[in-house]
Design a protein that fits this description.
The structure is a single chain. The chain is an alpha+beta fold. It has a single domain, classed as Gcn5-related N-acetyltransferase (GNAT) (Aminopeptidase). 27% of the residues lie in helices and 20% in strands. The protein is built from four helices and five strands; from the N terminus they run βααβββαβα. The chain has a five-stranded mixed sheet. The N and C termini lie far apart (53 Å).
Length: 171
């Protein structure tokens, strides 16, 4: 997804493109450093990089748009995971996407890069027939997503259940 001109408000030359498997390490690094509450160690970075590289392939379920940093690496990224839902009039292809990562390197913030990456990602997903989009937004980021068409949903709930270690240790 190479564009010929920067989106309004973005730095010149900083245009989003569709991510490939080769971008997995950088997307994983941005997620670890800027999105997760606790950065991943090297072993988990490797696991996530390998999983994401596979999922970013054309037949995979991940789509991302990235903005290259002038000095190398990525300045910003937006990643979605596509999943099936039961078809309905509003979901004719039965496809939904959860925006999993939106991150911008601190040195590149306030230039519209997150907006450009998310906008390009939404266009890509729409071309693929996705009609339902979900994301979790921080209070600071919520206005951006509302400007892009997202609405708050008080019914959305979340739970994380981690496997419990057997009582009494190893058997």
């Amino acid at each position: 997804m190479t564009q010929s001109a920067a989106a309004p408000g973005t730095a010149a030359g900083c245009v989003p493109r569709r991510a490939t498997a080769d971008d997995a390490a950088e997307v994983t690094r941005l997620r670890s450093q800027l999105v997760l509450s606790e950065p991943l160690d090297e072993e988990w970075l490797d696991v996530c990089r390998d999983q994401l590289a596979s999922r970013l392939r054309p037949e995979g379920d991940a789509r991302a748009c990235v903005v290259d940093a002038p000095g190398g690496g990525l300045a910003a990224c937006a990643l979605a995971l596509i999943h099936p839902v039961l078809s309905a009039p509003r979901y004719p292809r039965g496809l939904a996407a959860r925006i999993h990562i939106v991150a911008t390197e601190p040195a590149h913030r306030r230039r519209g890069l997150a907006r450009a990456a998310v906008s390009a990602l939404l266009e890509l997903l729409e071309r693929e027939g996705v009609t339902l989009y979900e994301l979790h937004a921080s209070a600071d980021a919520a206005p951006l997503y509302e400007e892009l068409g997202f609405a708050r949903d008080p019914a959305l709930m979340r739970m994380t259940k981690l496997p419990q270690a057997p009582e009494g240790g190893a058997e």
